Amino acid sequence: MNARVQRAVDNFMQGYGCCQSVVAAFADLYGLDDTMAKRVAAGFGGGVGRLRMMCGAVSGIVMLVGLDCGQTEGSDRMGKSHCYQVVQQLLAEFKEQNGSVICAELLGLKGHDKAMTSYVASPRTAEYYKTRPCAAKVECAAKIFATYLMAKKNNE
């Protein structure tokens, strides 16, 4: 699992969004190829479309939980409830470790800064990587999901 966590960080450092980075590191476990994983997760970067809402790395956890234990029958309330339970547990862990699941809060942005958000992606420069906590959030999210998978495997 350590290799998957490192792959998530490497993806981010190669320019992929937080959500793409996390989802692509585990997608093959669910029959999803790298390209499709990155496509389906692309819009969640920057706190969903760069709106600074839910952190993309956190969105990646949610997507992976859906792939892992999401229900496929509309009437399956127990399955849906179980999926929600896992999502809530993993996001609570992320929040405990990071103080928030909200992109703007993780970046330290205040009201005016959040309002000024545009759809234009930031250039990935050395300065970008120095000033952003995103690689650490990607690593944290990937570790949380990897720990969940290992615990699940040990309980089977």
List the helices and strands and how they pair.
Layout: H1 2-13, H2 18-26, H3 34-41, H4 56-69, H5 77-98, H6 103-107, H7 111-115, H8 126-131, H9 134-155
Strand content: under 5%
Q: What is the average of the pLDDT values? A: 92
What is Rg? 15 Å
Distance linking N and C termini: 17 Å
Please summarize what this structure is.
This protein is mainly α and 156 residues long.
Q: How would you describe this protein?
A:
By secondary structure, this protein is mainly alpha-helical. It is built from nine helices and no strands. Helix 1 packs antiparallel against helix 2. The chain is globular, with a radius of gyration of 15 Å. The two termini are 17 Å apart.
List keywords for this structure.
156 residues, mainly alpha, globular
